[in-house]
Input
Amino acid sequence: MKTKFMFLACFFCVSLSLMAGDKQTIRIGTEAVDLIYQVAGNGRLYQSYLGRKLHHEADMAHLSLGKEAYPTHGMEDYFEPAIHVVHHDGNPSAVLKYQSHTRQSLSPDVEEVVITLQDDQYPVSVKLHYVAYRKENVIKTYTEISHQEKKAVELHKYASAMLHMNRSKYFLTEFSGDWANEVGIKSQPLEFGKKIIDTKLGTRANMFCSPFFQLSLDNQAEEEAGEVLVGSLGWTGNFRFVFEVDNQNGLRIIPGINPYASTYRLNPNEVFVTPEFYFTYSFDGMGQASRNLHDWARNHQVKDGNGGRMTLLNNWEATGFNFNEDKLVKLMDDAAGLGVDMFLLDDGWFANKYPRSSDHQGLGDWDETADKLPNGISHLTRAAKEKGIKFGLWIEPEMVNPKSELYEKHKDWVIHLPNRDEYYFRNQMVLDLSNPKVQDYVFGIVDGLMTRYPDIAFFKWDCNSPITNIYSPYLKDKQSHLYIDYVRGLYRVLERINAKYPALPMMLCSGGGGRSDYEALKYFTEFWPSDNTDPIERLFIQWGFSQVFPAKTLCAHVTGWNRKASVKFRTEVAMMGKLGFDINMAELNEKEAAYCRDAVKNYNCLKPVILDGDMHRLVSPYSGNHTSTMYVDKQQNRAVVFAFDIYPRYSENIRPVRLHGLDADKMYRVKEINLMPGSGSNLSGNGQVFSGEYLQNVGLNLFTGRQLNSRVIELTAE
Ligand code: GLA
Output
């Protein structure tokens, strides 16, 4: 009864303010989506709408208030808060009231709205940032928390944002797995209560789950149909997504840093900036959401997002740690012969007291091993230059093997518990990047190499260990800052590298896909999705990452994993990402080698389509025995279709596949390319001309009944 009365009283109060016409509306809009906030008579901010764009301004007056935009701990909200602050006097509550908002154009198609909220009893301020990318239908949000109390306050929770949905049903798709089994796609309905996706691995944070999700609304969205919100957090460390369905079937989505063991003491006038949360909203299924994110990533987020990408030959699978100068120079000949842009020297080139002959030692000592490389890196960059290719180098600068000179000299730089046995992951430990001296040291690894060898054209930056033995000798009584300050320290280093070497491409690697977030990609041109390069597994892994990341960021290498698959099949899977080879070319017969040379040429020619075009996933590998994806250039003049038969069943009915993304009125010539030397195409329709309309409504017979068969088909508008 009491509750009912309170509810009525509340409602009355709100209605009064609405009738008084004093409710302020703040709209954050893209071409297709609106996120609308309103300030109520009580001075607090509410999310009134998130969904398809509302074109009639007059309708704003009809919107109900909705739920509080950034709920606090300690007051009348009974579900998961966005912020939990304990003030210097021990008071654990906050009431945030709207103070002001600003709106500014960052470019013709990008607008930022900043809403400032202020606690009504304490000098604590919360700024909610929203950057709307009009054309790409992406909204970026993050929050700044600051105060002018007499002493530090404690932040126990500090979400990047909160989004509310009010729909009949919710279906969450998460991307989880393990090393060599990344981004398995799993969907589930959300019912009352919480679903949390989080990590506490620290550095190799995404080994078990990735910082992105798809949320279907009302019905499970499909590739080309249904409403879906796709979100991703830019944080190269412990993240957390909370999805909580409340008593009225409302859903709150709370993305942010994982507050696990991370209470943050914030000093007066310090600003706590949360990571950015990016989301897009599609009314036409997952495919459109992916294309939105791909465009946004290339135009606004990824390092050199609209620039070129280099094909390469890597030596890791071919040699492991077992190489010398002559072997490497010989591999460079293979790279040049293959026609790729670069030779990438992987792990094993450094350390002398404890040479890096295995993963047990040497990490931290970044000088060339004298008996492996007597003439140093400069000999290698010179050799590469002579052969007309670039030279790239592997480093793992955040880590140390206990068997290294660095560890012997600088135990104080290593994250470790002073009074316990050390626990190693891949025989190594993590350096303490919360310490500015360690930041200088890590920056100095790249800077030192670039200064000595300015012809290094690329780095592969690895990170093989999660944080173990969690204790920072530097942070002393602020241990609960370590997970956060580590990541901020890493960004400081990466910012310095970006500032000094803005054109230096770098690959982010973390024992495979252990790091896969959009903040890191501000500093990296691409990332290594998985150590698993079995082409069948890669079809699934690349399908998973492609939900959120464009092809040009997904490194995909042709290797010796799964020799049951032909070199052609393996290459064609890798051509759907940023193509590289990590294979002993001497193992290939002449036909296979000729095929690879031809494939590199075709890939170079198709780069604008695959790397910068629109991706349309046609048939999911999860749906059965075949899979297909196509890419269309922005002018809809060229397209390329990849089709794979994985394990067709006896007597299976094979139907034509309908294409997507073409101009219905254009005429396209269909041509199978990437054929093995000496073999012809048996694709029906090969060489013929079809309208986009026909190809999209009738389709092509892409699939066959042959196991591990693959096809690449080029479409050119006439
Ligand atoms: C990690 C990477 C591999 C390779 C090795 C080298 O596992 O994912 O690609 O670079 O390290 O040690």
User: Anything to note?
Assistant: Residues 2-301 form a domain with the Beta-galactosidase; Chain A, domain 5 fold (CATH 2.70.98.60). The first strand starts at residue 24 and ends at 29.
